[in-house]
Amino acid sequence: MMSYTSPNWSRSVLLTIDTQNDFTLPEAVAMVPGTFEVLPKMEQMLAVYRALTMPIIHVVRLYQEDGSNVDLCRRESIEKGLQVVAPETEGAELVHSIRPLNYSGLDSRRLLHGEFQAVGDQEWILYKPRWGAFYNTSLEHFLRERGIDTILFAGCNFPNCPRTSMYEASERDFRVVMVSDAMSQVYEQGMKEMRNIGVHVCSLAEAIVEVEQAVGR
């Protein structure tokens, strides 16, 4: 079983999930506890991938103010005026500390049309309309085209979007890595459930060693 699920670190991509101001910053409107605290770990993982020119994708949410593209469980609140990760607002932007150099902001129009927005050398942003990063997106095709078979996950709120995205990746036969200390709202039973479907659960320190050794730079 391990031969099929063990990470191919040299053929991996780093996915950050929903690490946007409205979900991350203290006192933000939809702040997810623990996300701000894991930012230093995310920054370290991103620094390694950037230094090695390895691919990075920042997956984000965008809630249109009329609620038309919002999950049913949140739609009524948005329709009534709650503004969360609204297009063209600072709340929707990536947290400052994880942005690449020369970052100029989200291109909401392109993202909402399903396009990948390039924001650096081997670095992109992708909008996902629901919990999972593969749902109604071209993420799978994008990764297959580039020969990527391993996905490292970090970011915001394990029980919702990261967990859903990891299940989606697994059912598409990608090799999946959960960087557990670079993700918010992680708990022991959740990590056990991930291991049970073949996810490689590891620390930031382990992931850095493995990637640097595999790429050999």
Quick description:
By secondary structure, this protein is an alpha/beta fold. It contains nine helices and seven strands; from the N terminus they run αβααβααββαβαβαβα.
In which range does the helix fraction lie? 25-40%
Q: Remind me, CATH topology?
A: Rossmann fold
User: Main β-sheet, in a few words?
Assistant: 7 strands, mixed
CATH architecture identity: 3-Layer(aba) Sandwich
Distance between the termini: 29 Å
Number of separate helices: 9
* Main sheet: strand order: 3-4-2-1-5-6-7
CATH class: Alpha Beta
Number of structural domains: 1
Strand content: 15-25%
Low-confidence stretches: none
Globular, elongated, flat, extended or rod-shaped: what is the shape? globular
Integer average pLDDT: 97
What is the SS-derived class?
alpha/beta
Topology summary:
Blueprint: H1 2-5, E1 12-17, H2 21-24, H3 35-51, E2 56-60, H4 72-79, H5 108-112, E3 117-120, E4 123-127, H6 139-145, E5 150-155, H7 161-171, E6 175-183, H8 188-196, E7 200-202, H9 204-215
Parallel strand pairs: 1-2, 1-5, 2-4, 5-6, 6-7
Antiparallel strand pairs: 3-4
Helix pairs in contact: 3-9
Family: Belongs to the isochorismatase family.
GO molecular function: hydrolase activity
Domain Isochorismatase-like: 12-205
